[in-house]
């Protein structure tokens, strides 16, 4: 029978550290520590200074007792105890970091590796196997070695200064174009551009990972592997093995390696943004816009997010000096869960929690919540793919994950020996399930707060240019009270003024000629000149009427409403362009956009009282719904509701112009607003954008007092004051089942077509 080295007498053993294991010095929270590198497997382990001194004694000649004695003589109070030495030795054996003189050691190592791989595969989440899988592309180390001498300088001081100047210059150039950029963001989510966006995203992520590899190579590390990881079957995520940076003694170099990918992407985003600013509308302009969004928003949301194990996570680890913060956070959650829900009060607190009583628990909770959000997002994404197949995959994945989790839980619960005490665990589990049931089936909620409302003026006089002209002076400000007849804006048109002066001169000349013909009694010439004078007088009157349009005066008493009035002087406006509006005081109402699902709930109410919470205001407005359109439409009700402008309504691009009738319905009905262009956005841009889902429009009268301080364009959410309440569990079931039914119907419709 073979002797198991893990349970044999160890005090007299003479272990030897494997020859391909290397150690590297680092500082951990100001104290010396070491990184153990397993070069054959590309693994890294962090140990303290006393542990390193003990491990370094393993030369094949020194016994464990001698190593402990030497450690006690050199480390003083920090020396390892016999129990700690025994635990450390077994850890080295389990991680295959030691060699042995006993026979069969190689076979045992291979057997142990095989068992470890099998155990890891079994422990791996089956959903993760499906949703995330890697495609290795070989070793890039040789390529990076050739490229690094040429471009490695970008990760030094000269590169950083150049990067900062590029970012600063781009921000200065981009600031005036922010509104135009956000208005065009809807094109990024257009279905027709998904393939192009996927290609752009792939290129960006390859360059992102190439940046990690270059930074690692610059500071002396090796990059043994890179490849592609597919998320939800379609989203490519490049990866590169930059783990060699973990052995760098300087934490700032490790931070540079972790930030290198984002550093590269932000530089690319700046170049693309400058290109977008200097190109006309088209495929190139749209592609540059998509690249900027992917290299900034997506990068900040995922790569810079420390709650996911990407770049931001490793930057946080090195900055705080807490290795394996994510693992320690999970250990805290497991420890807390076992104590609270299973009654394992004797379970010792993890050492990492005692060392970092704030950072580890806080990170563990936040990372767990974020993981739930990400998994929900991934499942929704998968359900949208492949017509009906994506929904099946999502449901199956959730089912497998739940079943696997439940099986693991019950295996642990009924585990003999080291499992929890059933007398303590079962009552706690029962209390938890009862509390969860009470929350789901006893707590009433009002789920109808999905409508979006925007403040509008019921009656407005839109001041439009009746002649093309150059704005020379704006005499009023936004919100200013004015009287009927007040001069608001002055414009000039040099061409029209010159033509008017020319006709006046011709008229005076014609009158002089007519007078001279009359004096010499040349009646035929006199009559002909009289006809010329009459024609010139008509032209002068028409020109004078046109020039009078260069002065915009108030048609009624009221308040001035307009966008960026201070920027108008010096700009040309065309015929029909809106310059500003005048609205009567206390004439405000609400334009409301309803989901189709809320119309049935609203129809069952006896009255239509509503409450509105506008963004940035603490006081709710009260009102009553005056009318609701009988037909839903995809037309955009109001430009501030659109997601590119910061609103909640998602848009999509459309090749078909939005019909005027649909635009009128979206605005709450033609009886209120005859200016249909106002509800379609800016110019022709609104005609190429529509809501992702059709919605109903309605109007509400504000009944609250003191609404003079409200400004048109303020928006918020509507809650129906007398809506029938539902229990939370029923509402969740209806929402999920309704979502599944919608996807099944869409899949059937797609397959039938």
For the CA atoms, what is the radius of gyration? 37 Å
Distance between the termini: 70 Å
SS field, number of helical segments: 22
> Main beta sheet: strand number and arrangement?
6 strands, antiparallel, barrel
Flag low-confidence runs: 1-8, 102-109, 117-124, 670-687
Structure summary, number of beta strands: 26
The amount of helix comes to 40-55%
- Overall average residue pLDDT: 77
Question: Strands of the biggest beta sheet: in what spatial order?
Answer: 10-19-24-21-20-25
Overall form: elongated
Strand content range? 15-25%
- Domain module tally: 5
Structural class: alpha+beta
Key features of this structure:
about 750 residues, alpha+beta, 5 domains, four-stranded antiparallel sheet, 26 strands
């Amino acid at each position: 029978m073979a002797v198991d080295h893990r349970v044999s007498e160890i005090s007299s053993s003479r272990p030897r550290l494997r020859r391909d294991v290397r150690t590297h010095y680092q500082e951990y929270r100001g104290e010396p520590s070491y990184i153990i590198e397993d070069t054959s497997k590309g693994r890294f382990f962090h140990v303290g200074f006393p542990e390193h001194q003990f491990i370094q004694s393993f030369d094949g000649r020194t016994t464990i007792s001698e190593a402990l004695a030497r450690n006690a003589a050199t480390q003083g109070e920090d020396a390892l105890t016999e129990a700690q030495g025994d635990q450390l030795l077994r850890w080295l054996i389990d991680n295959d970091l030691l060699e042995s003189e006993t026979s069969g050691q190689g076979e045992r190592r291979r057997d142990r590796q095989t068992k470890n791989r099998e155990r890891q595969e079994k422990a791996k989440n089956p959903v993760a196997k499906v949703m995330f899988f890697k495609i290795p592309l070989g070793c890039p180390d040789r390529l990076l070695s050739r490229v690094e001498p040429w471009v490695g300088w970008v990760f030094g001081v000269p590169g950083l200064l150049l990067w900062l100047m590029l970012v600063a210059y781009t921000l200065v150039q981009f600031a005036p174009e922010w509104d135009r950029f956000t208005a065009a963001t809807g094109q990024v989510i257009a279905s027709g551009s998904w393939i192009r966006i996927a290609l752009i995203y792939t290129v960006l992520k390859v360059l992102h990972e190439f940046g990690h590899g270059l930074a690692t190579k610059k500071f002396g590390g090796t990059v043994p592997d890179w490849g592609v990881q597919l998320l939800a079957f379609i989203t490519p995520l490049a990866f590169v093995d930059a783990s060699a940076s973990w052995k760098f003694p300087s934490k700032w170099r490790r931070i540079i390696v972790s930030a290198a990918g984002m550093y590269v992407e932000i530089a690319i985003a700046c170049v693309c943004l400058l290109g977008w600013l200097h190109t006309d509308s088209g495929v190139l302009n749209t592609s540059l816009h998509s690249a900027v969004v992917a290299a900034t928003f997506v990068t900040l949301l995922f790569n810079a997010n420390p709650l996911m194990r990407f770049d931001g996570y490793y930057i946080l680890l090195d900055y705080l000096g807490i290795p394996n913060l994510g693992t320690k956070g999970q250990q805290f959650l497991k420890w807390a869960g076992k104590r609270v829900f299973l009654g394992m009060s004797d379970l010792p607190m993890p050492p990492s929690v005692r060392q970092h009583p704030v950072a580890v628990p806080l990170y563990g909770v936040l990372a767990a919540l974020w993981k739930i959000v990400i998994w929900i997002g991934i499942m929704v994404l998968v359900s949208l793919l492949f017509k009906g197949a994506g929904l099946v995959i999502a449901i199956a994945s959730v089912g497998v994950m739940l079943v696997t989790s439940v099986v693991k839980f019950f295996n642990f619960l009924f585990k003999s020996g080291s499992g929890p005490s059933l007398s303590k665990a079962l009552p706690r589990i029962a209390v938890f399930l009862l509390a969860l049931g009470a929350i789901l089936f006893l707590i009433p909620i009002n789920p109808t707060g999905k409508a979006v409302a925007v403040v509008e003026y019921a009656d407005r006089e839109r001041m439009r240019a009746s002649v093309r002209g150059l704005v020379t002076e704006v005499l009023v400000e936004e919100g200013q009270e004015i009287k009927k007849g007040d001069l608001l804006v002055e414009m000039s048109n040099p061409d029209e003024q010159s033509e008017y002066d020319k006709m006046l001169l011709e008229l005076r000349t014609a009158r002089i000629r007519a007078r001279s013909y009359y004096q010499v009694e040349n009646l035929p010439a006199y009559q002909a000149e009289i006809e010329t004078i009459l024609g010139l007088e008509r032209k002068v009157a028409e020109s004078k009427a046109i020039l009078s349009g260069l002065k915009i005066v108030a048609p009624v008493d009221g308040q001035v409403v307009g966008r960026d009035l201070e920027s108008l002087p010096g700009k040309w406006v065309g015929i029909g362009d809106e310059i500003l509006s005048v609205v009567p005081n206390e004439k405000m109402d609400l334009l409301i956009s309803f989901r189709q699902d809320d119309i049935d709930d609203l129809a069952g109410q006896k009255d239509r009282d509503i409450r509105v919470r506008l963004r940035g205001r603490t006081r709710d407005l009260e009102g009553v719904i005056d009318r609701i359109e009988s037909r839903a439409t995809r037309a955009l009700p109001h430009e501030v509701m659109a997601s590119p402008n910061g609103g909640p309504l998602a848009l999509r691009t459309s090749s078909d112009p939005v019909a005027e009738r649909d635009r009128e319905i979206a605005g709450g009905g033609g009886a209120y607003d005859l200016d249909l262009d106002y509800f379609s956005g800016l110019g022709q841009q609104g005609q190429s954008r529509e809501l992702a889902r059709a919605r109903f429009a309605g109007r509400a009268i504000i009944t609250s007092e003191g609404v003079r301080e409200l400004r048109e364009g303020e928006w918020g959410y509507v809650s129906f004051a007398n809506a029938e309440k539902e229990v939370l569990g029923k509402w969740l079931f209806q929402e999920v089942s309704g979502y599944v039914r919608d996807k099944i119907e869409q899949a059937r419709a797609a397959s039938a077509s």
